[in-house]
User: Fold Adenylyl-sulfate kinase from Lebetimonas natsushimae.
Amino acid sequence: MNHNIIIHPHKVSRKKREKIKNQRGCVLWFTGLSGSGKSTIANEVENQLNKLGFHTYLLDGDNIRHGLNKDLGFSEKDRSENIRRIAELSKLFVDAGIITLTAFISPFIKDRQKAKEIIGERDFIEIFIDTPFAECVKRDPKGLYKKAMRGEIKNFTGINSPYEKPVNPTIHIKTLEENIEESVKKIINYLKINNYI
Ligand SMILES: Nc1ncnc2c1ncn2[C@@H]1O[C@H](COP(=O)(O)OS(=O)(=O)O)[C@@H](OP(=O)(O)O)[C@H]1O
Ligand SMILES: Nc1ncnc2c1ncn2[C@@H]1O[C@H](COP(=O)(O)OP(=O)(O)O)[C@@H](O)[C@H]1O
Assistant:
Protein backbone atom coordinates (compact mmCIF):
# COMPACT_ATOMS: atom_id res chain seq x y z
CA MET A 1 0.00 0.00 0.00
CA ASN A 2 1.30 3.50 -0.83
CA HIS A 3 0.80 5.74 2.20
CA ASN A 4 1.45 8.89 0.16
CA ILE A 5 -1.76 8.44 -1.82
CA ILE A 6 -4.48 10.62 -0.38
CA ILE A 7 -8.05 10.02 -1.55
CA HIS A 8 -9.66 13.21 -2.83
CA PRO A 9 -13.27 13.67 -1.70
CA HIS A 10 -15.72 13.82 -4.60
CA LYS A 11 -18.44 16.46 -4.79
CA VAL A 12 -20.77 14.13 -6.64
CA SER A 13 -21.69 11.15 -4.45
CA ARG A 14 -22.96 7.70 -5.38
CA LYS A 15 -26.35 8.75 -4.01
CA LYS A 16 -26.52 11.73 -6.36
CA ARG A 17 -25.50 9.56 -9.33
CA GLU A 18 -28.15 6.99 -8.44
CA LYS A 19 -30.79 9.65 -8.00
CA ILE A 20 -30.58 10.92 -11.57
CA LYS A 21 -30.68 7.33 -12.82
CA ASN A 22 -33.64 6.46 -10.61
CA GLN A 23 -32.05 3.17 -9.54
CA ARG A 24 -29.72 1.63 -6.96
CA GLY A 25 -26.36 0.35 -8.20
CA CYS A 26 -25.57 -3.30 -7.56
CA VAL A 27 -23.74 -6.30 -9.00
CA LEU A 28 -25.60 -9.27 -10.43
CA TRP A 29 -22.83 -11.85 -10.05
CA PHE A 30 -23.56 -14.85 -12.30
CA THR A 31 -21.63 -18.05 -11.57
CA GLY A 32 -21.81 -21.50 -13.15
CA LEU A 33 -20.07 -23.97 -15.41
CA SER A 34 -19.07 -23.12 -18.98
CA GLY A 35 -22.20 -23.57 -21.09
CA SER A 36 -24.52 -23.35 -18.08
CA GLY A 37 -26.25 -20.22 -19.45
CA LYS A 38 -24.55 -17.30 -17.66
CA SER A 39 -24.03 -15.17 -20.79
CA THR A 40 -27.41 -16.00 -22.30
CA ILE A 41 -29.37 -15.08 -19.16
CA ALA A 42 -27.19 -12.07 -18.22
CA ASN A 43 -27.57 -10.67 -21.76
CA GLU A 44 -31.35 -10.98 -21.66
CA VAL A 45 -31.57 -9.46 -18.16
CA GLU A 46 -29.48 -6.51 -19.37
CA ASN A 47 -31.66 -6.20 -22.49
CA GLN A 48 -34.86 -6.10 -20.41
CA LEU A 49 -33.42 -3.57 -17.94
CA ASN A 50 -32.26 -1.40 -20.84
CA LYS A 51 -35.76 -1.51 -22.37
CA LEU A 52 -37.16 -0.43 -18.99
CA GLY A 53 -34.81 2.58 -19.08
CA PHE A 54 -32.22 1.49 -16.50
CA HIS A 55 -28.46 2.02 -16.73
CA THR A 56 -26.51 -1.23 -16.94
CA TYR A 57 -23.18 -2.72 -17.95
CA LEU A 58 -22.33 -6.36 -18.61
CA LEU A 59 -18.80 -7.53 -17.85
CA ASP A 60 -17.89 -10.81 -19.51
CA GLY A 61 -15.03 -12.63 -21.19
CA ASP A 62 -15.24 -10.46 -24.30
CA ASN A 63 -14.47 -7.18 -22.59
CA ILE A 64 -12.34 -8.54 -19.75
CA ARG A 65 -10.27 -11.55 -20.84
CA HIS A 66 -9.47 -9.82 -24.18
CA GLY A 67 -8.58 -6.53 -22.50
CA LEU A 68 -7.94 -5.77 -18.82
CA ASN A 69 -7.17 -9.42 -17.96
CA LYS A 70 -5.53 -10.61 -21.17
CA ASP A 71 -2.39 -11.47 -19.20
CA LEU A 72 -4.27 -14.12 -17.19
CA GLY A 73 -4.84 -17.83 -17.92
CA PHE A 74 -6.79 -20.55 -16.12
CA SER A 75 -4.53 -21.69 -13.26
CA GLU A 76 -6.11 -21.36 -9.80
CA LYS A 77 -3.91 -18.32 -9.14
CA ASP A 78 -4.86 -16.58 -12.40
CA ARG A 79 -8.57 -17.28 -11.92
CA SER A 80 -8.36 -15.71 -8.44
CA GLU A 81 -6.66 -12.62 -9.85
CA ASN A 82 -9.24 -12.51 -12.68
CA ILE A 83 -12.09 -12.47 -10.16
CA ARG A 84 -10.34 -9.96 -7.83
CA ARG A 85 -9.89 -7.45 -10.69
CA ILE A 86 -13.47 -7.96 -11.88
CA ALA A 87 -14.72 -7.35 -8.33
CA GLU A 88 -12.67 -4.14 -8.01
CA LEU A 89 -13.95 -2.95 -11.39
CA SER A 90 -17.55 -3.82 -10.51
CA LYS A 91 -17.19 -1.83 -7.29
CA LEU A 92 -16.38 1.28 -9.35
CA PHE A 93 -19.39 0.65 -11.60
CA VAL A 94 -21.62 0.39 -8.53
CA ASP A 95 -20.17 3.66 -7.23
CA ALA A 96 -21.17 5.14 -10.60
CA GLY A 97 -24.73 3.98 -9.84
CA ILE A 98 -24.79 1.31 -12.55
CA ILE A 99 -26.56 -2.05 -12.40
CA THR A 100 -23.55 -4.23 -13.22
CA LEU A 101 -23.80 -7.79 -14.48
CA THR A 102 -20.80 -10.15 -14.38
CA ALA A 103 -20.75 -13.47 -16.25
CA PHE A 104 -17.70 -15.48 -15.19
CA ILE A 105 -17.38 -19.10 -14.09
CA SER A 106 -15.83 -17.87 -10.80
CA PRO A 107 -15.45 -21.49 -9.67
CA PHE A 108 -13.97 -21.00 -6.20
CA ILE A 109 -16.03 -20.20 -3.10
CA LYS A 110 -13.16 -18.23 -1.55
CA ASP A 111 -12.86 -15.97 -4.62
CA ARG A 112 -16.62 -15.27 -4.75
CA GLN A 113 -16.50 -14.57 -0.99
CA LYS A 114 -13.64 -12.12 -1.59
CA ALA A 115 -15.59 -10.49 -4.42
CA LYS A 116 -18.52 -10.05 -2.04
CA GLU A 117 -16.21 -8.41 0.53
CA ILE A 118 -14.68 -6.06 -2.07
CA ILE A 119 -18.06 -5.03 -3.51
CA GLY A 120 -19.90 -5.02 -0.17
CA GLU A 121 -22.54 -7.52 0.93
CA ARG A 122 -25.43 -5.12 0.33
CA ASP A 123 -24.51 -4.58 -3.32
CA PHE A 124 -23.61 -8.18 -4.21
CA ILE A 125 -26.30 -10.46 -5.62
CA GLU A 126 -25.00 -13.97 -6.27
CA ILE A 127 -26.87 -15.81 -9.04
CA PHE A 128 -26.11 -19.50 -9.40
CA ILE A 129 -26.81 -20.76 -12.93
CA ASP A 130 -27.27 -24.36 -11.96
CA THR A 131 -26.94 -26.66 -14.96
CA PRO A 132 -25.71 -30.23 -14.46
CA PHE A 133 -22.27 -31.00 -15.89
CA ALA A 134 -23.73 -33.62 -18.29
CA GLU A 135 -26.11 -31.02 -19.76
CA CYS A 136 -23.27 -28.51 -20.25
CA VAL A 137 -21.29 -31.21 -22.09
CA LYS A 138 -24.35 -31.90 -24.23
CA ARG A 139 -24.86 -28.19 -25.05
CA ASP A 140 -21.14 -27.49 -25.58
CA PRO A 141 -21.91 -24.19 -27.41
CA LYS A 142 -18.24 -23.47 -28.13
CA GLY A 143 -17.02 -27.05 -28.61
CA LEU A 144 -14.68 -26.62 -25.63
CA TYR A 145 -15.81 -29.72 -23.68
CA LYS A 146 -15.01 -31.89 -26.71
CA LYS A 147 -11.58 -30.32 -26.94
CA ALA A 148 -10.97 -30.65 -23.18
CA MET A 149 -12.04 -34.30 -23.24
CA ARG A 150 -9.51 -34.93 -26.01
CA GLY A 151 -6.92 -33.50 -23.62
CA GLU A 152 -6.41 -30.34 -25.67
CA ILE A 153 -7.27 -27.86 -22.88
CA LYS A 154 -5.65 -28.14 -19.47
CA ASN A 155 -7.39 -27.01 -16.24
CA PHE A 156 -10.84 -27.09 -17.85
CA THR A 157 -13.60 -26.45 -15.30
CA GLY A 158 -15.60 -29.59 -14.53
CA ILE A 159 -13.02 -31.86 -16.16
CA ASN A 160 -9.62 -31.26 -14.63
CA SER A 161 -10.33 -28.14 -12.58
CA PRO A 162 -13.05 -27.95 -9.89
CA TYR A 163 -16.31 -25.98 -9.72
CA GLU A 164 -17.43 -25.26 -6.15
CA LYS A 165 -21.20 -24.71 -6.08
CA PRO A 166 -22.57 -21.77 -4.08
CA VAL A 167 -23.97 -22.94 -0.75
CA ASN A 168 -26.55 -20.21 -0.32
CA PRO A 169 -26.88 -18.12 -3.51
CA THR A 170 -29.17 -15.08 -3.51
CA ILE A 171 -30.93 -16.40 -6.61
CA HIS A 172 -30.84 -20.04 -7.70
CA ILE A 173 -31.61 -20.70 -11.39
CA LYS A 174 -32.09 -24.32 -12.47
CA THR A 175 -31.96 -24.20 -16.27
CA LEU A 176 -33.35 -27.71 -16.72
CA GLU A 177 -36.49 -26.71 -14.82
CA GLU A 178 -37.12 -23.20 -16.16
CA ASN A 179 -36.72 -21.50 -19.52
CA ILE A 180 -34.69 -18.35 -20.21
CA GLU A 181 -37.74 -16.07 -20.01
CA GLU A 182 -38.73 -17.43 -16.57
CA SER A 183 -35.18 -17.00 -15.25
CA VAL A 184 -35.00 -13.42 -16.51
CA LYS A 185 -38.36 -12.61 -14.90
CA LYS A 186 -37.19 -14.06 -11.58
CA ILE A 187 -34.09 -11.82 -11.57
CA ILE A 188 -35.96 -8.65 -12.62
CA ASN A 189 -38.59 -9.34 -9.93
CA TYR A 190 -35.85 -9.67 -7.32
CA LEU A 191 -34.55 -6.22 -8.30
CA LYS A 192 -38.06 -4.75 -8.09
CA ILE A 193 -38.98 -6.35 -4.75
CA ASN A 194 -35.71 -5.23 -3.19
CA ASN A 195 -35.99 -1.65 -4.49
CA TYR A 196 -32.99 -1.66 -6.82
CA ILE A 197 -35.28 -0.53 -9.64
N1 LIG B 1 -9.47 -24.04 -18.91
C1 LIG B 1 -10.63 -23.42 -19.04
N2 LIG B 1 -11.60 -23.60 -18.10
C2 LIG B 1 -12.77 -22.95 -18.24
N3 LIG B 1 -13.08 -22.11 -19.25
C3 LIG B 1 -12.15 -21.90 -20.21
C4 LIG B 1 -10.89 -22.54 -20.14
N4 LIG B 1 -10.17 -22.16 -21.22
C5 LIG B 1 -10.92 -21.30 -21.93
N5 LIG B 1 -12.12 -21.15 -21.33
C6 LIG B 1 -13.15 -20.18 -21.82
O1 LIG B 1 -13.05 -19.07 -20.93
C7 LIG B 1 -14.29 -18.80 -20.30
C8 LIG B 1 -14.15 -18.78 -18.77
O2 LIG B 1 -13.48 -17.63 -18.35
P1 LIG B 1 -13.82 -16.98 -16.94
O3 LIG B 1 -13.05 -15.70 -16.87
O4 LIG B 1 -15.28 -16.92 -16.78
O5 LIG B 1 -13.20 -18.07 -15.95
S1 LIG B 1 -12.89 -17.93 -14.39
O6 LIG B 1 -14.01 -17.24 -13.76
O7 LIG B 1 -11.64 -17.18 -14.26
O8 LIG B 1 -12.74 -19.31 -13.90
C9 LIG B 1 -15.24 -19.89 -20.67
O9 LIG B 1 -16.38 -19.19 -21.12
P2 LIG B 1 -17.89 -19.53 -20.69
O10 LIG B 1 -18.20 -20.71 -21.55
O11 LIG B 1 -18.63 -18.31 -21.08
O12 LIG B 1 -17.98 -19.82 -19.24
C10 LIG B 1 -14.57 -20.66 -21.80
O13 LIG B 1 -15.13 -20.29 -23.02
N1 LIG C 1 -32.94 -22.45 -19.67
C1 LIG C 1 -31.80 -22.03 -20.25
N2 LIG C 1 -31.13 -20.98 -19.72
C2 LIG C 1 -29.97 -20.54 -20.30
N3 LIG C 1 -29.42 -21.09 -21.41
C3 LIG C 1 -30.05 -22.15 -21.97
C4 LIG C 1 -31.26 -22.67 -21.41
N4 LIG C 1 -31.65 -23.72 -22.16
C5 LIG C 1 -30.73 -23.85 -23.15
N5 LIG C 1 -29.78 -22.90 -23.05
C6 LIG C 1 -28.64 -22.77 -24.00
O1 LIG C 1 -27.42 -23.08 -23.31
C7 LIG C 1 -26.33 -22.36 -23.88
C8 LIG C 1 -25.62 -21.60 -22.75
O2 LIG C 1 -24.48 -20.95 -23.28
P1 LIG C 1 -23.87 -19.65 -22.63
O3 LIG C 1 -24.93 -18.68 -22.26
O4 LIG C 1 -22.77 -19.18 -23.53
O5 LIG C 1 -23.25 -20.26 -21.27
P2 LIG C 1 -22.07 -19.69 -20.35
O6 LIG C 1 -22.02 -18.20 -20.53
O7 LIG C 1 -22.43 -20.09 -18.96
O8 LIG C 1 -20.82 -20.36 -20.85
C9 LIG C 1 -26.91 -21.43 -24.93
O9 LIG C 1 -26.74 -22.02 -26.19
C10 LIG C 1 -28.41 -21.36 -24.56
O10 LIG C 1 -29.24 -21.11 -25.64
About this structure: The two ends are 37 Å apart (CA to CA).
